[in-house]
What we know:
By secondary structure, the chain is α/β, with parallel strands linked by helices. It contains 17 helices and 18 strands. It has helices spanning 54-60, 101-114, 118-134, 149-159, 182-196, 216-229, 242-251, 255-261, 279-288, 296-301, 306-309, 312-317, 337-352, 360-365, 369-374, 409-416, 443-460; strands spanning 7-8, 19-26, 36-44, 47-53, 66-76, 78-83, 137-142, 162-165, 202-204, 206-210, 233-237, 269-273, 291-294, 322-324, 392-396, 422-427, 430-434, 437-438. It has a 9-stranded mixed sheet with strand order 1-4-3-2-5-15-16-17-18. A 5-stranded parallel sheet has the order 10-11-12-13-14. Strands 6-7-8-9 form a 4-stranded parallel sheet. Zinc ion binds next to loops.
Amino acid sequence: MTTPSMFESPTHAASTPDLLVVADTVLTMERHSTPLTDAAIAVTDGRITAIGSAAALLATHPDAPTIGGPNHLAIPGLINAHQHLTGDRLIRSMIPDDLEAGRSIFEWAVPAHAAHTGDDDELSATLSLVEAACNGVTFTVEAGTVAHPSRVLAGFDAVGVGGTLGSWGWDVAGQPWAGDTVDQVLDRQREVQRLTSGHERVDGWVTLVGHDLMSDELVAAASDLARAKGTGITFHLSPSDSDTAAYLDRTGKHPAVHLADLGALGSHVLLGHGVHLADDEVERLLDTDTAIAYCPWAYLRLGQGVTRAGRHIEFIDQGGRVAIGCDAENAGDAIDVLGAVALTAGLAKDMAMDPTVFGAHRALHHATLGAAEALGMADEIGSITVGKRADIAIVDTTGPEWVPRSPDPILQLVWASDGRSVSHVVSSGRVVVRDGEPTLVDRTALAVEAQERHRSLVERGHLG
Ligand SMILES: [Zn+2]
């Protein structure tokens, strides 16, 4: 542990900050950083403007509002790199966990989405993002299945957190929200770009459902659109081995090889999952600098074979960019990135049958700075760094899981605790969770509305 020296943005040095985040331990999660003790983080206009000793910053700015204090640990706001914000939320933990793979998607998830109204979308996104925020998540990548993007954007605004957002993208005849032509699908994505243009916290991304549920023309054109707009694109690929079988049958090539040959991969691409990858696919993903969102709880809940086939740690060790995600409320269910971080570390060790492999420190990197790098946003989020967005999660260390305090706060954070230890959350400089409660939305009113909408959705979608 080190006592912090002062890092300051010269333009804000003199004025009173909007907020001082105070903690007995700060994990900046910058590369090669060590924990700072008795530190404070100054926030002005949504940005981190100084990091230094708590005593010095409190003395310089006696009038600044503060949050945290002794018995608090500050970490960067966590990044959830793959989360469905609609569809599953209102039928949370309702899809049986003993169904064949296709049935859970086509008998449950797709009909639930098809029956979703705009009101359902906004409520679902708000609920999901409240859960995420209360567990320390300040940035969420929507996974590519949104029918009413403006309503999901309203959910982001209601909770006050950031993320990326696209529109439902597939060109599969006879399915809900399908475009008849590639242009129709892409027009919807362009609409989201317009909707999010200039937004402080939410970026428009191009999103496709992916798998083998997209034509070659669509995925190539969608990737080009993201490139042209300077944004990211995300879609699902190979969480189970069924995409491999479908692509081999249709193209004679492994999925990622086929997509690379189409020119659809690149550093702007975040693949959801990539659990079942052949050697030639790992090679092409590394060559094209394509990133992967890794959602280990979903693969366990759905029995998709990550313990046998997953190559994410090998991919990371070869320089691949990986970010951790939580997926959906019927695929891993809990929106708790810290829980997924612990599982990432545990699976890596167990699959290698070697306790020296990976570990809590490396795993946490892939929910913070490493995740930001996978999203192409490392200059903006992922670490507590002067100049970056003031996205900070503050953990209360008075709970039993924190007694006694370990000299290694990352070991204790990852292995002993989870999102429930998070007490306050700052997103773009605004306190969006205080004492475990969202500050901008009424959680009780949301719960009443959710129970009603759940009933209505189950009836309209003929679910269960
Ligand atoms: Zn997904």
